[in-house]
Amino acid sequence: MARAKAQAGGGDRLVSKNRRASFDYTITDTLEAGLVLIGSEARSLRENSTDLTDAWVNIDGRGEAWIRGMRIPHLKHAAFGHSEDRPRKLLLHREQIERLRGLIERDGMTLIATKCYIKNNHAKLEVAVAKGKKTHDKRHAIKDREAGREARAAIRRGLKY
Q1: 129-142: buried (b, 16+ CB within 10 Å) or exposed (e) per residue?
Q2: Which of 28, 106, 150, 159 has the fewest Cβ atoms nearer than 10 Å?
């Protein structure tokens, strides 16, 4: 049943993932938000082209959440264009925005975009509450990753004999 739904166009389709997010930040909480897009942006997203590496979320004084730094490139065959890195409004409930505002008022916390995907023909964005890592934390993460890689290789070598 799940396979038929995926083939019929339902389900989630990953458009873009911010792979640097887990390396640069310690992620504590995630939330799904809708995106307000214009036509050429929506078509560009469906062609799997967006950049989330510098994307972050801002909550303004009116209680609205905006994604900034998200780049959606132009389509060559679009009838009208759009600004690639314009701020885009996020669709969240008032309670969700207030909860996020309370979380980021803590020292060093920020809101970043981790994933952009299409769910039931709607553009969605995964927003994460995160805290920036220090350089020594990043070095420790690299060291742990290398140790895990070496351990998996040693286990594979042991299974071959």
Answers
A1: bbeebeeeeeeeee
A2: 159
